[in-house]
Amino acid sequence: xxxxxxxxxxxxxxxxxxxxxxxxxxxxxxxxxxxxxxxxxxxxxxxxxxxxxxxxxxxxxxxxxxxxxxxxxxxxxxxxxxxxxxxxxxxxxxxxxxxxxxxxxxxxxxxxxxxxxxxxxxxxxxxxxxxxxxxxxxxxxxxxxxxxxxxxxxxxxxxxxxxxxxxxxxxxxxxxxxxxxxxxxxxxxxxxxxxxxxxxxxxxxxxxxxxxxxxxxxxxxxxxxxxxxxxxxxxxxxxxxxxxxxxxxxxxxxxxxxxxxxxxxxxxxxxxxxxxxxxxxxxxxxxxxxxxxxxxxxxxxxxxxxxxxxxxxxxxxxx
Length: 319
Known about the structure:
Oligomer: single chain
Structural class: mainly alpha
Radius of gyration: 21 Å
Number of domains: 3
CATH class of the largest domain: Mainly Alpha
């Protein structure tokens, strides 16, 4: 097993995470307890151990388990777990980069493509994070992420996804960027090119100012502007992509909070695990503001048993 922990080891993916490192951490002891729990099919103990560690600590436990048993922890978990709980627990023992790569692959496997998951990851993640995720994806799946994105999509939407994968966080003249988008809106024929170029090559702070100015000029939300501009001859995917990107630029925590309101298993787990050590506290706040109910209370009502306990442990606390 590759034990290089990258960003997860340094907890550098954010500071508003709900999951923090366990004090008095003893990986060999946890590995021994996990082996016993697997033998006895004691799922409660497995959940308790793995949800109370940071990702970097879980990597250490997985390595300690392999040293102890000469087997991978993933294989042991798959023997005793199933369904959504299995997916969650396997997600916990992946590195952040592995987990996002896994989500991207799942979004493109089988019949149909989960465009919203592709957009979530590509819009939210920074250029450095995406570069690391792409490297892991190509290595783990022996595939090329960029080629997979192109093969699963088409037209301007495909161009948007590739631009997001290769996005930059530079700065341009605020007035010039706003003017370019204003001019595009004044043209008779809609052109996605300027939107894709500007929205994927500037840092979020700069783009928020661009969008504020554009809304002042048009006297309507940018999302509504895009809705009208790219209706008709353009694909719905392109419109969805640009609107999602704008929402992630303006308020990523709100976007994620709205995304998990359906409580759909794969989406909920994807967002919670991806952001558990980064900014899940901010997502929790946005969720309560949107729904009037805390995420913790919602999880208590929607789920039962060991899955409920695992999700509550990742969520961590009531708001």
